[in-house]
Amino acid sequence: MKKSSTANLYVALMHYPVVNKNGAVIASAVTNLDLHDIARAAKTYGVQSFYVVTPIEDQRKLVEDIVDHWTRGNGAAYNPNRRDAMELIRIRNSLEQVADDVRTQCGLNPRTVVTCARRKPECLGYGELREMIQTENPYILVFGTAWGLCEEVFAQADYVLEPVAGSTAYNHLSVRSAVAIILDRLMGPTSLTNSGRA
Amino acid sequence: MKKSSTANLYVALMHYPVVNKNGAVIASAVTNLDLHDIARAAKTYGVQSFYVVTPIEDQRKLVEDIVDHWTRGNGAAYNPNRRDAMELIRIRNSLEQVADDVRTQCGLNPRTVVTCARRKPECLGYGELREMIQTENPYILVFGTAWGLCEEVFAQADYVLEPVAGSTAYNHLSVRSAVAIILDRLMGPTSLTNSGRA
Prior knowledge:
The structure is a homodimer.
Chain A: E1 9-14, E2 18-19, E3 25-26, H1 32-44, E4 50-53, H2 57-71, H3 74-78, H4 80-86, E5 89-92, H5 95-106, E6 111-114, H6 126-132, E7 139-144, H7 151-156, E8 159-160, H8 175-187
Parallel strand pairs in A: 1-4, 1-7, 4-5, 6-7, 6-8
Antiparallel strand pairs in A: 2-3
Helix pairs in contact in A: 1-4, 1-8, 6-8
């Protein structure tokens, strides 16, 4: 079994196609702290690349400028740890482009695993996915912004991951928190029952 | 055993005394998304209150204004789910004030559990703390901002929680991500080995 730290796992943060509060399909604006928080979590859990997905040229330029500041500009010297995380960021137009990029990188066809705060039929459990990513097969974990991914993304996905579900009925985590928790469930310690932790 | 959803758990986010990049003690500025993300995670995992701690009057006023907007202002009508989370926020000057408030609320003396990205001697494990919070005793989980809590906070704490530690040596999560992961480890599903999850 491969070590968790080298799982062939990728994260994609989608800004299109997502829905707004009223269910209309929109392209959402990029949030600066999404880039930082998700890059840092991805680096912590050994994710291969963090794809920021938007078809809007101005938004791609904004992400490029932010990443450039932290990886080659003044930010890189100011905070090398941040640089190491921000270097994981790749900018793409669509999920298809992300899949193409992963295919080119590993020579294997990636599977998409879409996340959602609401339970969908035939969800994949964390335990199952945890085992699946211990192989060399590449998986792309797909996260939505705004009010969530639009239905066509679910329809085209290979798998839908079960919702995080805390210890209450409230299910309105930020995408930053959801990414952190899901990576910990997939790549963090297996068991919480002993203090040393597996 | 009490249900996890009713654990007597409190979260405190400290803006003083914390250290800057050079190890000097400072009061850090409040970050708007810390309030939102941590309130939403706290609500998801049944945390009793989320204390934002700063002795700076202007900063307390800023937090009050933000909380007011989302709990009583236009934000409350725009997004009632956000209101439910932001209602958990309490603003206090110091950790002593937080402890006093918890003591008044439950009539029991709270224990403080301080978090840190670096491993300290005699750390408390997640499994141990998970069992401890299943009692009626109140616990305050203490998080730092900026470059972390200053040493006196550790010296005065009842317990220090072991670091999150992902699947790599990189340990530079945002405080927003760290809170989310720690609450999931303490109050989320126990086991990740079966797909249904405990």
